[in-house]
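mind reviewing these tokens:
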Amino acid sequence: METGEEFGPWLSRQLKLAGKTQAELAEELGLTRAAVSAWITGRSTPRPTVMTDIAKALGTDVGTVHTRTTDTQAGLPLFWHHRDGYLDGGRDLGNAAAFAFDADVQVLARETCQNSLDERLDPDRPVQVHYTLHELTGPALEGFKKAIHWEDLLPHYSAVSETAGHQKVGRVVHAGVRDMRERQRLVLLRVDDYNASGLTGDDYGDGKFAAVVRRQLESLKSGHSAGGSYGLGKATLWATSALGLVLINSTLSEPHEGRKERRLIGRLELPWREVDGKAFAGPAWLGRPDPDSPGAKVARSWWADEETVARLHLTRKDDEPGTSFLIVGAHDVASLDEKASDMDDEPMDAEEEDSEDTRDIRRMHRRLVKALGRDFWAAMTGGGGRPPRLEVYVSAMRNGHEVVVPEVRVDPSVEQPSRTRALQAYYDGAMVERLTEAGQVAARRVPLKVPLLGGARGNAGTHEAVLLVTEALTDADQKKDGPRNQVHSLRGNRMTVKRAGVPNLPLGTNPFQAVLLVGEAVGELAPFAKDAEEFLRAAEPPEHDRWGQTEELTLRWSPSAYRRINTLTYEVNKAVRDLVARQPKRAAREGGEALRKALTVKKRPKAKVPTGPVVPELSDLQATIGDDGEWRIEAEVSIPRGGDEIVPMVPVAELDVRSGSRPKLDWAELVALEGCEVDGEVLRFTPGARRAKFRGATDVTSHPVRTMFTRLVVELRAGKGE
């Protein structure tokens, strides 16, 4: 017979749940208090015949006492605990963390799938994530409302609706309740992961359960290559619920209270409200009363039976560790703006196109599949004898039995065919140096100089990122590939962090797709991979959609550390341009030598070369606006003939204005490319050179206005040497 928790701790909790003392139990059993105390402290266990009497005293069956895999049902039923209003009169009109993201299923997919990847349990198998859209109507809806104690929540929703006109969260909640009432339907979105750690730990102590259910802005990720670092991603669950309500069922990888399966809790996020003259702060929890709290007024997680889990639509497919999040009242406001995602390019039927329903489960299904394929194609790609890190499935149903959209496994070779081909070639070691035939994948190493922690000068080491370039699909299949001529950048967790086009491509360049692997995406044993992971993770904002200047980067490295990323971007773009440039054809040699002998070219006598210092001049300038809003330039300098001395020059960047002096911009980066070297901000030219090239990037913090509203002027001014 399966047994769960040790008898002593289990019995102690059951006495608290039943409101009994050790002395009262001893009296009912006709034993001494010392005997009961010995059971609770683990010094002894009751005889089998006494187990029956204990079950009777606790109001449960003897099997529950023997197995101890669940709590007794005596005394304390499920209830909603609403946090009391603050004693100082303060008010929270919503969870600020939720405002970091839009109510968008594509954002939800990115954050939840990233979290599941970060919690992968067995590294030799993929983590499975299932997204299930479920529309409830009629009896199915009424049964679910009863299971979540809807009547207890209704006064709180009504109180929020009364003040909805004064703040944003209230308007969202009011619209969600009204939609459910008027249309008599409710959309659930369940996110299940398997081969993940589950929400382990105590209800209140330091652990993953408390970090997700009880706290804000706390991230307890398992490794340095994890995607999240802010503790904000979980807020997307509640942001996607128009009712602010999420239910959770977790199967644990490590036992808690002697058990692993069906650990349930519910959390409600509402703004401050007043119900029957009493103020409530905001959040509420659905659970069992905690006997350790004063008056048992705090709700804690509980171990549910299979019937309760089924009523709450939280049944998991097996007992593999992981967590199920049920978003109650899911909506997708961003779906009404087809420009919200560059992947929303598939044709829709007329009914769907004209619909203004943010709870259309067919549209939500389509957007989930596209978002998951766009952001996690690399994690879903295997090769070279290694399995993929991730498998994702999406389905839609109605009332528990009607299939609206059959379950679809997101296929990276369908959603991102060219990039998937490139990554598989890297795993299989089937790359080439240059693209000469269709279907080939060219590879190039690109250096990332990782700075030292604490702002110290020098490098922790040079990490070699890997750039993969392959031909894009033909015009007929272009939509499957997404926008062309882009680089998808990713690190150890294999989620696409940055998507950016390549500027200044040569004319006639064949369409391509590119992938940049950095950190442990190159390989866990690659030189300085862990250093690069730590550095780039700190360079990601909460959205995890780019690398650049962040507060974390400034505090742990230096204010200028982000320039290493700008340099990496420049080198990547340069390498892409070199790989995709068409190679010039060699001139035919037939007749060439004879023709040269038959021709005589008269040469003019050499002109006298003037003596003395010569002053270089700016002859060509190319400028673009970078991803972080900086001006990026590439300049060519012509050097007149003259004496032995070439005057050092200082490039100066200014903003063009109609009147007054031009605001000067600081340089974040100056790099010599040809015929010169950079000394601070001074260009020193190679003796005898006739031309030179350099590139630069301005410091965004020195810009007085946004770059898109400005014009750039670059001058060369004579430098003073030192």
